[in-house]
TrEMBL record:
This is DUF917 domain-containing protein. It comes from Sphingosinicella xenopeptidilytica. Residues 167-359 form the S-Me-THD-like C-terminal domain. Residues 8-164 form the S-Me-THD N-terminal domain. Pfam families: S-Me-THD_C, S-Me-THD_N. The lineage of its organism: Bacteria, Pseudomonadati, Pseudomonadota, Alphaproteobacteria, Sphingomonadales.
Length: 365
């Protein structure tokens, strides 16, 4: 078990979560502030390795859902975070033994740590996606048969809904309707599982990966070293594939909030060759990147956008005309690339008329 007692570590984890959030997941800075406030009160998050969790433990995911922009417009209620845990224990008749991130990207990776600090319940070093995705059925939990329901939803005013549906896609549809009605930002609790189920279905080690990513970027920047070279060295360990896809500036952004999601398209032109054009389409998260019309990375593989000078990762809602950025492509965890997983998280699930091709194949074309 690891206690997070350094604000620097929290900042590094938020930075790493932004990169793994692939543009979405909500701004982790809000969660960072929440954790720092708990630290001022002498409360610190604890992270537990999955191997330390008893097979019979009761694990719950507490998450936030909706369009990312409202995440930075609404204050997070400490009362609601505690109440949704209490209501879940009443609903199930069980004491919660551990918290797990539904996704490691953005806000949803920092808030379980904040709740851990408030309650003393450990956060598990794992999550359900290894990145961020916009829909509730797009998790390794759901793919492996761990239902999101019963799902408890609450808004900041205490309005509450309990969802029980025949499958997680229907839960997503019902939840999204409620979310749109209640201001496009809700706190949820679901994906009830045992410790054994968690070990068999979760993407492991991702909470500490956010710390490693964030620390790598910061230390390279402070030492005047090659930020992107060091970052790629770190990401390429363990058999995964990471490359810089593009170095350019934003020349156009189209975005809208539709059905509770942040939709958009980002167009960039190359700095060394202005005729090169990269277009990134997004649905909360960056979904597909096309260089001069040809795909170079697509879901479930990760697309992340970073400031070309500082290496600081950017969320989709923070992008603006004229920014000079580097675009990173990173292979997804192997669990998400399985044929059964691609039926839930592949390009066709996002409305693209093409089958998944891994980044290492596309990068070589």
């Amino acid at each position: 078990m690891k206690i997070i007692d350094s604000i620097q570590d929290v900042q590094d984890m938020a930075r790493g979560a932004t990169l793994l959030g692939t543009g979405g997941g909500g701004d982790p800075y809000i969660g960072e502030l929440f954790i720092r406030n708990q630290m001022k009160k002498g409360r610190f998050p604890t992270i537990i390795d999955p191997s330390e969790v008893d097979d019979g433990a009761f694990i719950v995911s507490v998450f936030h859902l909706g369009a990312p922009p409202p995440f930075v417009e609404q204050l997070v209620s400490e009362r609601i975070q505690l109440e949704i845990l209490r209501r879940t224990e009443v609903l199930t008749g069980r004491k919660i033994d551990g918290l797990i991130c539904v996704e490691i990207g953005g806000f949803n990776s920092t808030m379980p740590l904040a709740i851990s600090a408030m309650t003393g319940i450990p956060a598990i070093d794992a999550d359900g996606i290894g990145r961020a995705f916009p829909r509730m059925e797009m998790t390794a939990f759901s793919i492996n048969g761990i239902r999101s329901t019963p799902t408890l939803l609450m808004d900041e005013l205490g309005n509450e809904a309990l969802i029980n549906t025949e499958n997680d896609r229907m839960c997503e549809n019902v939840t999204r309707s409620i979310c749109s009605t209640l201001g496009a930002h809700l706190t949820g609790a679901g994906y009830h599982m045992s410790g054994k189920q968690m070990k068999e279905s979760a993407i492991l080690g991702t909470v500490t990966q956010t710390l490693e990513i964030g620390r790598t970027i910061r230390e390279a920047r402070e030492a005047g070293e090659d930020i992107f070279g060091n970052l790629l060295d770190s990401l390429n360990r363990g058999g995964r594939f990471a490359r810089i896809l593009f170095d350019g500036k934003i020349v156009d952004i189209v975005r809208e909030i539709r059905n509770g999601w942040h939709w958009g398209k980002v167009t960039m032109h190359g700095l060394s060759n202005p005729d090169d054009e990269l277009v990134i389409e997004l649905q909360n998260e960056f979904s597909i990147a096309r260089l001069n019309g040809r795909p170079v990375t697509m879901v479930p593989d990760l697309i992340s956008v970073l400031d070309r000078e500082s290496g600081e990762p950017r969320t989709a809602e923070s992008l603006s005309y004229g920014q000079r950025l580097k675009v990173l492509g990173y292979s997804a965890d192997p669990i998400l690339r399985r044929p059964d997983s691609l039926k839930a998280v592949g390009p066709r699930c996002f409305g693209f008329d093409e089958d998944f091709r891994p980044i290492e194949e596309l990068f070589q074309d």
